[in-house]
Amino acid sequence: QTKKYIHIPGGNQKRAIVLLQSAMAAREAFGRVLAFNKSAVSTRMRASFSDGPKRELLSIPLLGKVAAGVPLEEIHEDEFVDVPPHLVRNADTSFSLLVKGNSMIEDGIFDGDIIIVQEQPLAQNGEIVVAVVNNEATVKRYYMHQDKKLARPQVELRPANPEMESFFYPPDKVNIRGVVVGLMRKF
Questions:
Q1: What is the CA 113 to chain-centroid distance, rounded?
Q2: Would you say residue 34 has pLDDT above 50?
């Protein structure tokens, strides 16, 4: 009880013991560290309680804003977003970004949403990615075109907005930062 793993209500209610968090979960939560842009930020897990059962949330770093053609903001190590674990593939390599703009509205990603990104350098055709081109970050659908008609392969970054057109780049000009795996929105 002193280590905050269990809660024993007052009186003679021994069957009402509530598990707050397991020792293993607490140990793992404080041992995780994510390195992004040569800056270490910690990933934390915490438990949130109401009158109902235990609800665990992962606290992942909020690394800035992303939109079509707008650079990533400076990283603020003290900014975190609490997300349900089912929105995250691997907490050690996940981060979040605040979306600015409307290039992905047909995929349900709107201005002001927070996207959860699994950091990885590669993507499959059709995945929604965070890509950096010419030091500018964008959220788009990724497609690699290796058509025989093309002299060399091209990466298409396709918006999900009928008013916008795709951008095409040589593969060596596109730096995939990660794949979008989740989304959070405030109403």
A1: 11
A2: no
Distance, in Å, from the CA atom of 145 to the CA atom of 152, rounded to the nearest integer, reads 9
pLDDT score for 150: 67
Q: How confident is the model at residue 186 (pLDDT cuts 50, 70, 90)?
A: confident
| Residue-wise burial string across 87-121, b where 16 or more C-beta atoms lie within 10 A, e elsewhere | ebbebebbbbbbbbbbbbbebebeeebbbbbbbee
Q: What are the CA-CA distances from residue 75 to residues 97, 133, 174 (Å)?
A: 10, 18, 21
Catalytic residue list contains 103: yes
* Options 103, 149, 173, 186, the catalytic residue: 103
With CA atoms as reference, report the closest residue to 59 among 116, 129, 130: 116
Token pair 């970054």 is at which residue?
Answer: 157
Alpha helices, DSSP H only, in 32-175? Answer: none
- Which one of 39, 140, 148, 166 is the catalytic residue? 140
The verdict on whether 38 is a catalytic residue reads: no
CA–CA separation, 142 and 179 (whole Å): 10
> How far is 175 from 73, CA to CA, in rounded Å?
17
